Amino acid sequence: MASKDLTNFTEYQSKDVQLEAFGEEDSKCKELILSLPKEYYGVPNHYFYFFQGFWPKDSDVVVASMPKTGTTWLKALTFAIVNRNRFSSLENHPLLTSNSHELVPSLESNVYVDTISQFPKFDILNMIEPRLFGTHIPFASLAKSIKESNCKIIYICRNPFDTYVSYWNFMNKISLNFDFPTITIEDDFERYCKGICHVGSFWDHVLGYLNESIARPDKVLFMKYEDLKENGNSHVKRIAEFLDCPFTQEEESNGVIENIINLCSFKKMKELEANKFGEFGRKIEKNYLFRKAEVGDWINYLSPSMVEKLSKIIEEKFSGSGLSF
Ligand code: A3P
């Protein structure tokens, strides 16, 4: 990892075992990482480290989310919406041959990556504008350059119960591939309730973007996974308007919105070879991104006491925010 890259990280998620791989010239990086606050996240020798900052162009669009809230879907929709004139023929649309994470790189995983990252580095120099990026970085930790530029942010939020269940299932699949012990839902849920999971607590993450979307509606569009599922048409239109590329009457009559919704539907994406096979990060299979996509699946996983506990936290944290789940 080069020191210049480190200065661009907001939150650096590392594996302590990999710190051993740092060479002599990286000793400053290693020193820095070791000086950061860290939290165990349920997998042996793996910790979260907290850090700061990064950059953008005014025309950039950032798809922001907590992990497992519908990032893959929103990336696909946003890509299809902004590129609809470039790829008007659905027969050879890039979303049929690439996973949406390969088309919309993650700032922290594919752009500002270190040499020991699990994810492939993305070449942003040749990206066509508007450039689309994804991030799980909390709003408060985004660099000033992103907050102060005119680039737009679309945030997707999902019911915290379903988000958690999706996250737990996903983490266990990854753990298996690394031969790590199973992460029990009891232990992991306790950590989640304390706000210890990828990119921090659900409530701080959601409230950070929600508050900014209220203060600056031109800058941040706040969406809910459940709304997008229920009424795709009006939300796809909302995204296009927010990105200053509204659908024309002609496009609407020609079914362009419906085509985009179908192209990005769970059923369609899950069955594509591009999403069924291969990895999008080392030992992280693409098919892990497509599980059930159901609203309310948490009922099959969480005990009544877990539901009571998280409901109380959610009620307390979101009281007065206008947001309900
Ligand atoms: P489940 O685990 O509940 O099935 P992310 O993309 O942020 O990692 O979120 C993954 C969740 O979104 C998973 O939820 C996954 O099944 C669901 N998902 C993936 N693609 C989707 C799509 N096209 N439409 C709706 N949900 C989708």
Automatic annotation (TrEMBL):
<dbReference type="Pfam" id="PF00685">
    <property type="entry name" value="Sulfotransfer_1"/>
</dbReference>
<comment type="similarity">
    <text>Belongs to the sulfotransferase 1 family.</text>
</comment>
<dbReference type="GO" id="GO:0005737">
    <property type="term" value="C:cytoplasm"/>
</dbReference>
<feature type="domain" description="Sulfotransferase">
    <location>
        <begin position="58"/>
        <end position="322"/>
    </location>
</feature>
<dbReference type="GO" id="GO:0051923">
    <property type="term" value="P:sulfation"/>
</dbReference>
<dbReference type="GO" id="GO:0008146">
    <property type="term" value="F:sulfotransferase activity"/>
</dbReference>
<dbReference type="InterPro" id="IPR027417">
    <property type="entry name" value="P-loop_NTPase"/>
</dbReference>
<dbReference type="InterPro" id="IPR000863">
    <property type="entry name" value="Sulfotransferase_dom"/>
</dbReference>
<keyword id="KW-0808">Transferase</keyword>
<protein>
    <recommendedName>
        <fullName>Sulfotransferase</fullName>
        <ecNumber>2.8.2.-</ecNumber>
    </recommendedName>
</protein>
